[in-house]
Amino acid sequence: MEYYNIGDVQTIKVEATNLHSFVCYGSIVQTIRVEAAKLHSFVCGVTGLRNVNLIGCAGIRNLSFSTACLAGQWFEDLIPKLPLLESLKLDCCYGVKDIKIRNQQIKYLDLNCRVD
């Protein structure tokens, strides 16, 4: 498992052939870009995160965000691109006002979003 504990980094870019799990906590990060075909788990607790690009990460089974500032439309666009997604957790995600989740594989759904 790769574990990143970051501080004052604005952009994180990860390209990894064999990366299975990505866990990232910190503050001030605005953009995360991950390109990892074998990624199964993406867990992100980055305060104020505004842009996430998961390139070629269709194998994600576990997706978790806390304290991010991502729009509901972003999630609606992403979820259909993750056909194996089983677990989705959104905790204290600001900016999610409306969200439609359509995925036959989801077995665990935990939503705790704020609109302020």
Question: What this model shows, in words?
Answer:
With 116 residues, this protein is mostly beta strands. Helices cover 6% and strands 46% of the residues. Helix 1 links the parallel strand 7 and strand 8 (87-94). It starts with a strand and ends with a strand. The relative contact order is 0.16.
Order of helices and strands: EEEEEEEHEE
Shape: globular
Instruction: Count up the helices.
Output: 1
Provide the number of structural domains: 1
User: Quick one: how many beta strands?
Assistant: 9
N/C terminus separation: 34 Å
Q: How much helix, percentage-wise, in residues?
A: under 10%
Topology:
Layout: E1 2-5, E2 11-15, E3 21-27, E4 31-35, E5 41-47, E6 51-55, E7 62-66, H1 72-78, E8 87-94, E9 108-114
Parallel strand pairs: 1-3, 2-4, 3-5, 4-6, 5-7, 7-8, 8-9
